[in-house]
């Protein structure tokens, strides 16, 4: 009976969504184009190098080398093996969903247990510096100084989330309790060498697999970006988003947050970019209220990112709910850090800059935004070129097998 109700519910939601697309075709097209532009101009070209590099480093044993080196650090802090450091660092550098993809690869290679992989996925999916410093701070708020505050609160909050998640499943996964070994370069090099020898593929095949696997994942990411861009627009047009925001106004009132932020907050829960942009346009005074809301949205990741992570981990035994719980926890921790660090990392820096820097260099402060503009110019070329390379690799493999 339960499964029958679930089938009817899923079918009903899908049919309802199809009718909204028919009723608002122009708005759906506009939202699709906006999501597509974001994907092929920025997301694809910025994530592709990280994905390919991660695949190659895994194949050549470099990740295993890092695992041995960072074992004495990662095990006490997060209760995960040292190889988790690679997912953590790459996740911070390139943004979501890199951490989930690397965690899945480590799980497929049995370098992590299921519980260790779930702990790792919970805190390695963070926003990229390009998005925080470029898009939000400079692009939306036109204030480069906000980047330091939002970045520190986001990444520090993610670290605290990982420390909290170290206790998840500790009583079940007894195998994770290991001695804290000293750092040994010799042992690390031997582990790297053994890992490389186990991979019998020639170099050309390793490169081809890295490109194809990365493009396949990014195509999936693009689909979710476009889908949730349309869903967010449809929910707003049919009045569901405003209705939900009315319910959240009571929560905002209890937290002494401006009620005007409730609607942008709901939009941000679905799509971070749209929510952050709407919050910046509200011009709330004090600014701290807007920053608290954005910090929570960044930590929560948004349902669009969560759907991407769910799709990536679905082919393994990694469960989704620890990641979802960690996203809520990260949102609250980042918001609290924003309250405590707002004065030292933003207000005090403003006073210092005004007294000691009579001339402000706008070019230097817009470095992250210049990177975004550069990606928007060459991004489509990189995307199209990458697909051409992928088609060439597939064609050659088909010819060799025939």
From TrEMBL:
The keyword Iron does not apply. Keywords: Membrane, Transmembrane, Transmembrane helix. Pfam families: Gate. The keyword Transmembrane helix applies. This is Sporulation integral membrane protein YlbJ. The chain crosses the membrane at residues 7-24, 44-66, 120-141, 147-168, 206-228, 234-252, 291-313, 320-342, 378-395. Residues 42-139, 219-313 form the Nucleoside transporter/FeoB GTPase Gate domain.
């Amino acid at each position: 009976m339960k499964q029958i109700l679930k089938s009817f519910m899923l079918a009903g939601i899908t049919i309802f969504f199809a009718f909204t697309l028919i009723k608002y075709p122009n708005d759906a097209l506009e939202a699709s184009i906006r999501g597509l532009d974001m994907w092929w101009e920025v997301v694809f070209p910025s994530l592709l190098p990280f994905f390919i590099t991660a695949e190659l480093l895994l194949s050549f044993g470099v990740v295993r080398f890092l695992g041995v080196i960072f074992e004495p650090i990662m095990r006490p802090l997060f209760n995960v093996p040292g190889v988790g450091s690679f997912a953590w660092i790459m996740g911070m550098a390139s943004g979501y969903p890199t951490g989930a993809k690397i965690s899945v690869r480590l799980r497929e290679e049995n370098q992590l247990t299921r519980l260790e992989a779930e702990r790792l996925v919970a805190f390695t999916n963070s926003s990229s510096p390009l998005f925080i410093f470029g898009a939000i701070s400079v692009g939306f708020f036109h204030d480069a100084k906000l980047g330091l505050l939002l970045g520190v609160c986001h990444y520090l909050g993610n670290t605290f989330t990982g420390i909290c998640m170290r206790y998840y499943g500790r009583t079940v996964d007894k195998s994770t309790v290991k001695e804290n070994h000293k750092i040994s370069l010799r042992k690390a090099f031997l582990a790297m060498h053994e890992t490389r020898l186990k991979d019998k593929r020639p170099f050309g095949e390793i490169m081809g697999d890295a490109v194809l696997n990365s493009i396949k994942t990014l195509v999936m990411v693009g689909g979710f970006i476009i889908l949730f861009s349309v869903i967010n627009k449809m929910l707003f047009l049919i009045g569901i988003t405003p209705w939900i925001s009315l319910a959240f106004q009571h929560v905002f009132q209890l937290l002494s947050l401006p009620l005007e932020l409730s609607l942008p907050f709901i939009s941000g829960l679905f799509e971070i970019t749209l929510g952050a942009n709407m919050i910046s346009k509200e011009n709330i005074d004090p600014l701290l209220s807007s920053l608290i809301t954005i910090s929570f949205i960044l930590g929560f990741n948004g349902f669009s990112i969560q759907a991407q992570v769910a799709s990536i981990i679905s082919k393994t035994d990694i469960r989704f709910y620890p990641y979802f719980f960690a996203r809520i926890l990260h949102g609250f921790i980042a918001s609290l850090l924003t309250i405590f660090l707002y004065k030292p990392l933003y207000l005090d820096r403003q006073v210092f800059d005004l007294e000691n820097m009579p001339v402000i260099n706008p070019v230097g402060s817009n470095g992250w935004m210049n990177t975004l503009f550069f990606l928007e110019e060459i991004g489509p070329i990189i995307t199209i070129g990458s697909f051409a390379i992928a088609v060439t690799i597939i064609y050659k493999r088909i010819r060799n097998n025939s």
